[in-house]
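LAB NOTEBOOK - FOLDING QUEUE
OPERATOR: T.R.
BATCH SIZE: 2
PURPOSE: Compare the predicted structure-token outputs for two unrelated chains run back to back under identical settings.
PRIORITY: normal
REVIEWER: second-year student, initials M.K.

ITEM 1
FIELD SEQUENCE / FIELD STRUCTURE:
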Amino acid sequence: MSLPVIAILMPGDMGHGVGAALTAAGHTVLTCLAGRSEETRSLAQRAGMQDTGTLVELVSHADVILSILPPSAAVGLAKDIAAAMREAGSTPVYVDCNAVSPATAREACDAIAAVGAAFIDAGIIGLAPGKGGGTRFYVSGSDVSAMLALDGKGFDVISLGDEVGRASAMKMVYAALTKGTWTLQTAVMLAAEKLGLTEELTAEFAFSQKPALDAMRARIPRLPADSGRWIGEMEEIAATFADAGVTSGFHDGAADIFRVLEQTPFASETRETMDTSRTMEDALKVYAQTDVKKD
């Protein structure tokens, strides 16, 4: 029995890692590179993914579509795929793997359900496959069998039940801690830098909060490379918390910190090209001089 054909949109850091894992497991993995950058094309090629040229062709040949892209584009892609499904007369399973609130996941689900296709809500936790292991796909929906069939093929798949939104909520509350902590640490050190207390506070942390200081030294200089796509994720977390009756203020503030980092010269770096010799102190000096542009 042939393995299902998997399509991945888009082959960024996570998407191409998932694509490479599925290719290694014997699946044909498709993508659509129309309008994509040379970097994205290179990632797709390295992962063994095949370019269909158009979304209609992709929908026509895929059994399962994984949407893995910045949260601000999640609903738009779902609508584009729904339109392609109508044109192609084909309805592969659609899996929304984006860092979005439950409400946004349900909006994407509505677009896909309108053309009669099955929808799976998914939240990815961990690094991309091939970058240390332990990638987990939490999934929910009325029928998640298409994703459970991929369990162990470079990542783990864990079902959270039949309600669309539960998997997205899991991603939101998890990232609320991880990325929320990184932005809190950055805000603390940025305030210290602007108050002229970086050296003194660092010395105190070295004495009384060494694990936290070690984590800040490792993380704070590297955040700008991902800051642009993480603004939207913090906004989705804030909306999730508000809908749950919990203050959104923490993660509204986290989004503001990522807006500062997005305006720095370091934001043009990628994880592959960033200057790993840059220290926390070097980074803070630049962050403190950065003005956030208002729309």
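ITEM 2
FIELD SEQUENCE / FIELD STRUCTURE:
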Amino acid sequence: MKKIAVFCGASNGTKPEYVEKAWRLGEEMASSNIGLVYGGASIGVMGAIADGCLGKGGKVWGVIPESLQKMEVGHQHLTELIVVDTMHERKKIMYDLSDAFFILPGGMGTLDEMCEILTWAQLGFHHKPVYLINDGQFFDHLQAHMEYASKEGFISETHLKLYRLMEDAKSALDHFVKISNP
């Protein structure tokens, strides 16, 4: 079974669409027989994607540091909940379990996970696809900054291609399924 790590927020954000779209992505992953690897929370966008996937009979692996288990309310109904000591362990296990990465709306933690996985790709540590889900233009400003950093000589054109900016999660999932099953 192919698995996608989804980096996203432990909060709901200001728009109900963040939670609704995450829920639908979870359902679509389950329907496509793709497992979900995520941060292990039962709240926010994280909880929504897990519940959507589980609700359609999908498999979900959560990875959560012990220190965040109470704050992020670790999900108790997953295929497997892996409790670790550090954020570094969390990201490494999520990476090891996954065949691709989706970045959904989130805050500092989501951006940290995205930057680390892209840095690993830049350094050649992996060649797994990374999708920045720009549903509702959430990442427009980030994309503009990445292009500006490239123009200023800090990110090469080649490294800008380490991720795909996708209009929505369905497009990203369809692309991943297509490249995974040639």
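REVIEWER COMMENT (ITEM 2): The longest strand covers residues 60-65.
FOLLOW-UP: none requested
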